[in-house]
Amino acid sequence: MTTDATSGSADRPTNEPLHVDGEDDLDAIVSDRDVVLVDFHADWCGPCQMLEPLVETIAAETDATVAKVDVDANQQLAATYGVRGVPTLLVFADGEQVEQHTGALPEDRLRSLIERYTE
Questions:
Q1: Active site residue 78
Q2: Which of 41, 46, 68, 112 has CA atoms 20 to 30 A from the CA of 92?
């Protein structure tokens, strides 16, 4: 089951990734939530596929909202954020971008990255 960004409200935490459809969609998610992990990914990307279960776990087990952006469907949005490789992970805290990492991160590093901003 997939969840689109409009199904979650700011006062109801989501426990699975939100699928982003364009810049306005991402802007709404970032502005409505305290901490957002954005996963820029592609279906054909091996490291993205390996990261997928971890991203779902982060969504389920942390206070962060996880948003997924398919770079093939959202090329302009990827360009706006300077995404040159996938996966690229961005972290937003209080509406501001605070982190950007290209490549798959191990679980402990990804969790500590999120926890910096959710505690």
A1: no
A2: 46
